[in-house]
Amino acid sequence: MHDFVSIFASLDSPGIYLGWGAFQIQLGNLIVILVMILLFVLALFLPFPSGRKRK
Predict the structure, then answer these.
(1) CB-based contacts of 42: which residues, under 8 Å, 6+ apart?
(2) How far is 35 from 39, CA to CA, in rounded Å?
(3) Phi, psi dihedral angles at 45 (to 5 degrees)
(4) What are the helix (H) ranges across 1-55?
(5) Contact 27/16 with Cβ under 8 angstroms?
(6) How far apart are CA 20 and CA 1, in angstroms?
(7) pLDDT band of 28, cuts 50, 70, 90
């Protein structure tokens, strides 16, 4: 399993950091945050699955 993970990411090297002024974030964390925001927005706008309609 370790060989499979090491193909995609070198665990020995430091991460990739993005900076903008005094703000700095690691690329992996930024991707996780963006996916969470996307899922939140989708949950707001997608219709809620309805069950049986009441009479």
Answers:
(1) none
(2) 6
(3) -100, -20
(4) 2-8, 27-45
(5) yes
(6) 36
(7) very high
